[in-house]
Amino acid sequence: MVDLDGGPLGLEAVEAVARRGEPVALAPAARRALGAGRAFVERLAAGSEPIYGITTGVGKLKDVVIPHGERADLQRNLVLSHAAGVGSALAEPDVRAIMLLLAASLARGASGVRPIVVETIVACLNQRVHPVVPELGSVGASGDLAPLAHVALCLLGEGSTRAGDRQLPAAEALARAGVAPLVLETKEGLALLNGTHLMAGHGALTVLDAARLARLADVAGAMSLEALMGSNAAFDPRIHALRPHPGQLAVAANLMKLTAESAIIASHRDCTRVQDAYSLRCMPQVHGSTREAVTFARSVIERELASVSDNPLVFPADGVVLSGGNFHGEVLGLALDTLTLGLVQLAGISERRIDRLVNPLTNELLPPFLSPYGGVHSGYMIAQYVAAALVAELRTLAMPASAESVPTSGLQEDYNSMAAGSALKARRAAGLARQVLAIEVLLAAQALDFRAPLAPGRGSAAARDAVRRRVPRLEADRYLKADLDAALELCEADTVVAAVETVIGPLE
């Protein structure tokens, strides 16, 4: 059970709710804070003082005072008019992450909504009533307005929901779940729309995925290093103590651990080759830079999971309501664009190792394209093409979305973060990078088979065995996509890293 108590959410709690359906509850302390905030808003709404979004319109319409009898209508109209997203629907885990973050932010009591608003979001999460939320339409400032409006629309019994491949009208889905549609009161529509919850929800899941990919990259790299008869001397801790970036230190330690007791490395320890190629020798420095990007993004996202990103904000104890810009996503955009750059580097160096595994021009130690019968059979030739195509697409994602700004709302909102684009790009980058690393793991397992009877390090051997339990050694050409899909499934389930850690202990 994940309790919304007004405190920070943990990244792991977000994943538990988003991906595994962990139930959610509103804690009594948060319910009391919501009650105090709501009582204050109702006093304000009864007056005539211009207060943004409570007694006035929004955006460029901020100076239009709304008559008392129409203030509840304003809130419903905001939801209807802002539900204008386009493009593909977000995946259910992403929608659940958005809903959880929205509920958690509101539960901190600074938005002035009634407890029933948060309780309805929680009920939809627990009953798996998932709004259809188009992915495009947010400029990452004034909150993720369009996506959040589609969430709010469902709470009102409007719009559509999705369960698997089925869509249902929201009214029908709520009725089946025994959840009453919300009837919005003053300030509540605006509070549901304001917030960084698409950016932060995507960011939370992507940061966790990227951290897993960083460990997977170390495993894949160790396998390739051994298959290519490389040396682990470049991972000596004395080298990295002289340049002690935490990510670099962690990767070097992992690579030493993964290649420990390698008969392959021992067999050529006294050879005449002085240095390996950068894609092998510089893994601590390159993989380590990705880890630094993950650490930076994680620190930003964790703070966001403890934040309120609504506007205006109510402070009942002080008797004030304040307009500000906590909805602005610039800090998230910078962090997520940096994370994407890190993932691009991780996939890029992996593709270079993939090429060395199959390329007869740079590697005379393995059969061309890892086929025992090259010529009639092409082996894993096209797997490298696929990796190259994915890396090329990743590089197009490396342009920071947060470097751009397009003004909106009649220049009232004249510097937007565009960080929703940063979040969507980071999520896509993680998926592409995972596929590249899955290709490397698959090909490195094939290459290690050619080193028999020499045994790889205990970590590399465990990874190869995990692949072999699912994908047989390639002898003759076969339907290649099946191999790539199987390798990706192993990596998505974290099966390869889990198998390694069972043998050698946790990786950094």
What does this entry look like structurally?
By secondary structure, the chain is mainly alpha-helical. The protein folds into two domains: about 1-195, Fumarase/aspartase (N-terminal domain) (Fumarase C, Chain B, domain 1); about 205-505, Fumarase C, Chain A, domain 2 (Up-down Bundle), CATH 1.20.200.10. Helix content is about 55%, strand content about 5%. The chain contains 20 helices and eight strands. The strands form four sheets. A two-stranded parallel sheet has the order 1-2. A two-stranded antiparallel sheet has the order 3-4. Helix 1 packs across helix 9 (about 195-225) and helix 9 (about 195-225) crosses helix 18 (about 460-470). The longest helix is centred in the middle third of the chain and has 31 residues, at about 195-225. The protein is elongated.
Please outline the major beta sheet.
Answer: 2 strands, parallel
CATH superfamily of the largest domain: Fumarase/aspartase (Central domain)
Within the CATH hierarchy, at the fold level, what is the topology of the largest domain?
Fumarase C, Chain A, domain 2
Give the overall form.
Answer: elongated
Estimate the strand proportion.
Answer: 5-15%
CATH class of the largest domain: Mainly Alpha
In whole angstroms, the N-to-C terminal distance is 28 Å
Which CATH architecture of the largest domain would you pick?
Up-down Bundle
